[in-house]
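User: Is it possible to get a 3D structure for a protein together with its bound compound? The compound here is flavin-adenine dinucleotide. I've pasted both below.
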Amino acid sequence: MFDVAVIGGGVIGGLILRELSAYDIKICLLEKESDVAMGQSKANSGIVHAGFDAKPDSLKAKFNVLGNRLMPQITKELGVKYKNNGSLVLAFSQEEMKTLEELKSRGEENGVEGLEIISQEELIKKEPNVSKKAIGALYAPTGGIVCPYELTLASIGNAMDNGAELFTKFDVCEIKKDVDFIITAEDGRQITAKAVINCAGYGSQKIANFIGDFSFTVGGRKGEYILLDRQSGGFASHTLFCTPTKKGKGILVSPTVDGNILLGPTAEEVDFDDRTTTSNGLQSVISKANEMCQGVPHHTAITSFAGVRAYSDRHDFIIEESKVQKGFFNCAGIESPGLTSAPAIAKHVAGELIGKTLNLKKKENFNPIRKPDYFFSELSVEEKNEIIKKDPAYGRIICRCEQITEGEIIRALTENPRATDIDGVKRRTRAGMGRCQGGFCQPYVAEIIARVNGTDIETVTKNGKGSELLVGKTK
Amino acid sequence: MKNYDIVIIGGGPAGLAAAVSAYDNGVKSILILERDECLGGILNQCIHNGFGLTRFKESMTGPEYAYKFIEEVQKRGIEVSLNTTVLSLTKDKVVTAINSQEGVTLIKAKAVILAMGCRERSRGALNVAGARVAGIYSAGTAQKYVNVKGYLPGKDVVILGSGDIGLIMARRMTLEGAKVHAVCEIMPHSSGLKRNIVQCLNDFDIPLYLSHTITRIDGDKRVTGVEISAVDSDKKPIKGSEKYIKCDTVLFSVGLIPENELSKEAGIRLSPKTKGAEVYQNRETDVSGIFACGNVLQVHDLVDFVSEESELAGKSASEYVLNGEAEKNAINCIAGANLSYVLPQRIDKNAGGSVTLFFRTSGVFKNCKITVQDGQKTLLEIKKRVAVPGEMERVNLTEDKIKSIVGELTVGLEEGV
Ligand SMILES: Cc1cc2nc3c(=O)[nH]c(=O)nc-3n(C[C@H](O)[C@H](O)[C@H](O)COP(=O)(O)OP(=O)(O)OC[C@H]3O[C@@H](n4cnc5c(N)ncnc54)[C@H](O)[C@@H]3O)c2cc1C
Ligand SMILES: Cc1cc2nc3c(=O)[nH]c(=O)nc-3n(C[C@H](O)[C@H](O)[C@H](O)COP(=O)(O)OP(=O)(O)OC[C@H]3O[C@@H](n4cnc5c(N)ncnc54)[C@H](O)[C@@H]3O)c2cc1C
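Assistant: Yes, that's possible. Here is the predicted structure of the complex:
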């Protein structure tokens, strides 16, 4: 019996879980996949938006600006990579310059600090690779970048360290309200809870429907990306956006916190959670990036991927107690800037919404700190040697591109939330995320997974059942 | 900080041959750093025959070939550090390495030989569209699973790219009971050795689709099929030519990239064509005292030539240690018409001796002529019936000819002669 069950292990569910873990209540997280951070929170742009995009008075505007301010502190506590690199919105015509003025005053109304329109000359000084056709830009010094899945994993790990329980492969397929909520998974497992928070992203409409709440619908819009090798990391230092037009927001060119360059996303309506890349999509990323910047080093591409934005028909975040069922809360339609807003949404949901339903008392021994995870390559020689002396596994490099050690991989397999497959290890350690994309290290990682879990390598999967790496022994 | 005369990064065939040759040329303080748990490099997973035909006039497996050199290294008592990865290299030849026993150590060398080999280009590098699911491997990874770990990565296979590893894996997977439905090659010609096309594809009736590529990979958790399309002369897929193949596995064999992250860090100039260091004929890079050989320098077809090149690099490094830096009188050596590269990129006229030029053509040419010219005259002309990019070519320039060079040297190919 739980006090609160959170459905959906994305960044929203994750940070809410962490907020709740500070209180003296029994809480759990239900996730349908074999790991957390498998939805939108895995494949997005990773931008900590300044907050000039959203319409004033919308929930998006409110939580974006608040979330932006909370991000440095929360990433520090959780040991997650974050960088305040600043954003630039590029204008290619006088008309677009006018739009920048509008964005600037909208941003100011939302409470964004330090916005400034800069000239072409200043722009080129900040970003020498920007197209010479850009005539000016809106500079937002509070813009930043963060690793979205790292934030999700770390918040869930921290919550678990503070007592929260995680149930993976728990595909919620029925919710009944008796005295309490009875939540049933597809495989028959059941959980009861006094309150339920629906953070199921693309699945949040379905979850709401289970309790008879039909007050919103959720649609999907796919975005495709291309990721460039770290050798091109110096290509841009700020996040570069196009000026939004009637045709849409366009794509961005941005560094990531790990030093790669990200190009994308496209925007295409989809009617299921379709995360395949298409040649048209990738082609359009390439040509749009070429309009924004000169000499984009496309030849250093190391991977491409896609994410699906789950937006609601209200076109704003839905963060409220359901009108049809008390104790059931919807956090739905959390599209961009949802990642940025997540820390603020979590505080609001835990404090304001749950706090009013349940009697919340702070835990005495809550520890908000999660040791930085995968820092090994950034340590000094002395620090490294200290660790290797204690645990020789840190002296064995497994992923050569990212210089990830066996020690870090074992840690990912044993600490909260534990990785169980190749992709899980990859998201936690970056092993396989470099230029060879696991070509070299995958067999070794698979062996370590099998060893730590005491199973055979044949059972190791890429990302859960059905994605086994191997089909059998050789003759 | 430890000190050695020569530090060799990589214990594959290149590193091994370089070590033996450096030793035999008079330098005894040598250290080989190898990140794997054994010496031999990529050869350890190449259990097929066909190694050593040129050098030893017999056909051996990869491990057998490697063992010949490992024995030589052991006989000489050359120091080897296994399970040791080099993390960084500086211009003044300080190597940072890591292993479980000693932790992170710094090693100062008088000369360094780069022998890190190469890695495979991944799917991402090509931006092939579709699902990101299980069952997609580079051919070398599949080879490792099958030959080293003893597991089969799939049963119904489509291979993209006709590089040698892909061809060899087509045969290997077939012998293991898998069905290889197709090998697709985007170019109008294969990049693999002719003997591999015959022995690995034709002998097993595996179709090779030239001027074809994979345009989409389908699957939910695991690959369920691929769409392949013919491409036009710009390598763009031709609408209407799509063909669907059901499969559970896609192997990529789309090229090897010399592993030069350490070289870049040391500020060594790399050739945009070979993706390896630019070198003089003695295999010294533009950073004095750092040499390169084997696949980290240029991707070789045959390990026999790796050994040969590495012996040259080992000898040069020992000369550098024993005699100090020599004054150079360098000229550039340029890839002209129809060649993708020429190596060495620079020739030191002071060095003496003849020089062998290595190069690859940029396409398939029949009845052609290879010419070596300087600013004024033609030094050499060689007629060839066929030249293909899959086979590395070489020509030898005598000492006299080198001495007579005026200005830069250009190697080119003329068609239809
Ligand atoms: C292409 C793209 C780019 C974006 N860029 C940015 C950006 O730069 N900055 C920014 O601030 N925001 C950005 N966003 C928005 C941001 O990613 C989302 O707002 C945020 O990740 C939403 O998190 P979530 O937890 O609500 O959803 P998700 O991360 O999707 O999590 C929902 C979870 O619920 C699980 N689930 C679903 N159904 C069930 C069920 N029946 N039972 C159990 N579990 C279930 C899913 O498996 C999933 O793990 C972007 C989004 C996309 C798609
Ligand atoms: C599948 C396949 C089939 C082949 N078939 C044939 C054939 O039939 N006949 C033939 O003659 N040739 C064949 N070859 C070619 C031959 O194997 C290669 O040319 C040869 O192995 C290249 O030698 P190398 O030493 O340059 O590189 P490698 O063999 O790759 O060795 C490089 C070594 O350096 C180590 N290393 C790299 N970076 C570091 C670091 N930072 N720190 C420490 N150590 C490091 C690596 O672990 C590796 O052991 C084949 C190659 C492949 C891949």
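The two ends of chain B are 60 Å apart (CA to CA). Residues 327-417 of chain B form a domain with the Immunoglobulin-like fold (CATH 2.60.40).
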